[in-house]
């Protein structure tokens, strides 16, 4: 149930719950503060009345007034008191009380008597059954040190009770209303804030359904906007890699189908009628060539896919690059003999790197083999090895068919061959440079190309040097 509850509902509940708690605490505090303030106000007015009356009573010798009128005549202050009053004798017996209290006899409590005997005024609240409570102040009236009378001033707490009841009423109606309004507001705001999430979910569902061209429309730069653009980037990368995989499978099938078609065609042609052993031999030789080509493609593909999975072990031995370059130069001379392509050595510094000698040989040989293969007849290929910013920099410069800038960007892609290369040399898988790129990167290095179409190319392989032993001693 909890897991199914939407964020919107949960946010609204939290929002409403939080506000309800705040409202409750606020209302309780307000009630307490208000009731205290009201009581203080009442107490103060009782005190003021008592002080004013007692002052004149104390000043005069206080005779036993039996009639209220006589008393109020003698002490006009008492007539001004808007509250009821009582006057008790020093033992607590009632002597006089104002007319507005006649219906009720409110005796002096023991606490009040004790307190006034000690000269202290005392406040009390009394409640008779269900009636409105009364606030009382018992005030000692003394002549010198002797307690002559106790003046009691009292007032009904009705106005205070009513005011507090009204406050409670307002709070009881207002608080839930505020909570409901805030929950509605919270529901609305959460809905607005979460609407982009719904859009993301919908788009994600469409993408999950197979449509990788879908993107989330976003213009905002807030959290949701950032999430959306991260999501879009991720889908773009996914789309690119899926397109690459599809392209790769199509290219792989195409590259394998060509030799298969040739093999099939030649075999069928040879079998169409009886032929001389020489013709059969020729057909078989041609088939073998195509089979070799196919096995090369399959081997290279296997290597690349194992490299992608990180399953190819790359050794980390000391490799003397200059020796490697010199050996490859000799091999290249043999390779270029037929087309009179000469491979020369430029500046070759003695440099060492840590790596897999066999793989590094494969890397350099592949690039040099291409340089010879795509050179014009009688062209030259020059190899160089120098140190540059802590890297061993190997250059393979040829004078051959070259590449356009667009082609230069694509030559390291699997199965990519330029049109000029296809026309120039039929043989080739388009996988060699992909393998070279993997080997260079597996050695924390790079391979780059600069080229001029029709004139020649220069491949640069950079590998991190072995710091201490970079120069042969
Ligand atoms: P291939 O088997 O076709 O040589 P590679 O992966 O080694 O495959 O090279 C990919 C493509 O890069 C080649 O088909 C060619 O178009 C281009 N290329 C590589 N080396 C050179 C070069 N030295 N000069 C011109 N083009 C080159």
Describe what this molecule looks like in 3D:
This protein has 3 domains: 7-161, Beta-Lactamase (2-Layer Sandwich); 223-308, Helix Hairpins, CATH 1.10.287; 317-469, Heat Shock Protein 90, CATH 3.30.565. It is 55% helix and 18% strand. It has 12 helices and 12 strands. Helix 8 (321-336) packs parallel to helix 9 (357-373) and helix 9 (357-373) runs antiparallel to helix 12. It starts with 6 loop residues before the first helix and ends in a 9-residue tail after the last strand. The chain binds adenosine-5'-diphosphate.
What descriptors fit this protein?
473 residues, alpha+beta, Beta-Lactamase, Helix Hairpins, Heat Shock Protein 90, 3 domains, 5-stranded mixed β-sheet, 12 helices, 12 strands, rod-shaped, disordered C terminus, binds adenosine-5'-diphosphate
List ligands, each type once. Answer: adenosine-5'-diphosphate
Question: Which geometry do the CA atoms define?
Answer: rod-shaped
The strands making up the biggest β-sheet line up spatially as 2-1-5-4-3
User: Gap between N and C termini, in Å?
Assistant: 75 Å
**Structure annotation, total helices:** 12
- Beta-strand segment tally: 12
The overall pLDDT average reads 88
CATH class category of the largest domain:
Alpha Beta
> Under the CATH scheme, which architecture of the largest domain would be assigned?
2-Layer Sandwich
Give the fraction of residues assigned to helices.
55-70%
State the domain count: 3
- Radius of gyration, taken over Cα atoms and rounded to an integer in Å: 53 Å
CATH topology of the largest domain: Beta-Lactamase
Q: What is the makeup of the main sheet?
A: 5 strands, antiparallel
CATH-level-4 superfamily name of the largest domain: PAS domain
């Amino acid at each position: 149930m909890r897991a199914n509850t939407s964020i919107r509902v949960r946010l609204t509940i939290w929002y409403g719950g939080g506000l309800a708690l705040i409202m409750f605490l606020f209302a309780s505090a307000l009630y307490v503060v208000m009731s205290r303030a009201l009581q203080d106000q009442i107490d103060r007015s009782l005190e003021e009345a008592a002080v004013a009356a007692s002052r004149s009573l104390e000043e005069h010798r206080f005779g036993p007034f039996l009639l209220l009128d006589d008393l109020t005549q003698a002490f006009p202050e008492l007539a001004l008191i808007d509250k009821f009053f009582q006057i008790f004798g020093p033992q607590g017996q009632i002597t006089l009380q104002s007319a507005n209290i006649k219906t009720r006899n409110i005796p002096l409590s023991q606490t009040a008597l004790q307190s006034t005997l000690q000269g202290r005024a005392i406040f009390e609240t009394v409640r008779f059954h269900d009636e409105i409570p009364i606030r009382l102040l018992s005030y000692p009236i003394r002549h010198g040190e002797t307690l002559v009378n106790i003046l009691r001033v009292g007032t009904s707490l009705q106005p205070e009770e009513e005011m507090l009841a009204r406050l409670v009423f307002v709070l009881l109606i207002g608080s839930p209303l505020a909570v409901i309004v805030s929950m509605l507001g919270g529901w609305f705001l959460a809905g607005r804030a979460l609407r982009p999430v719904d859009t993301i979910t919908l788009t994600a569902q469409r993408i999950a359904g197979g449509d990788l061209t879908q993107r989330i429309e976003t213009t905002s730069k807030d959290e949701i906007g950032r999430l959306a653009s991260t999501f879009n980037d991720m889908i773009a990368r996914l789309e690119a890699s899926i397109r690459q995989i599809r392209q790769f499978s199509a290219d792989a099938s195409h590259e394998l189908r060509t030799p298969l078609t040739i093999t099939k065609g030649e075999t069928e042609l040879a079998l169409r009628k009886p032929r001389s052993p020489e013709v059969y031999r020729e057909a078989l030789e041609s088939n073998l060539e195509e089979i070799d080509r196919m096995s090369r493609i399959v081997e290279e593909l296997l290597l690349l896919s194992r490299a992608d999975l990180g399953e190819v072990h790359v050794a980390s031995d000391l490799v003397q690059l200059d020796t490697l370059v010199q050996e490859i130069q000799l091999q290249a001379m043999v390779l270029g003999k037929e087309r009179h392509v000469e491979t020369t050595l430029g500046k070759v510094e003695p440099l060492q790197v840590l790596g897999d000698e066999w793989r590094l040989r494969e890397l350099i040989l592949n690039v040099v083999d291409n340089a010879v293969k795509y050179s014009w007849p009688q062209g030259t290929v020059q190899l160089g090895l120098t140190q540059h910013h802590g890297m061993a920099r190997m250059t393979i410069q040829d004078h051959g068919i070259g590449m356009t800038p667009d082609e230069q960007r694509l030559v390291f892609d699997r199965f990519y061959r330029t049109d000029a290369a296809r026309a120039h040399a039929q043989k080739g898988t388009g996988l060699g440079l992909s393998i070279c790129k993997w080997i260079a990167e597996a050695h924390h290095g790079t391979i780059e190309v600069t080229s001029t179409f029709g004139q020649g190319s220069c491949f640069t392989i950079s590998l991190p040097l072995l710091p201490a032993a970079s120069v042969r001693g």
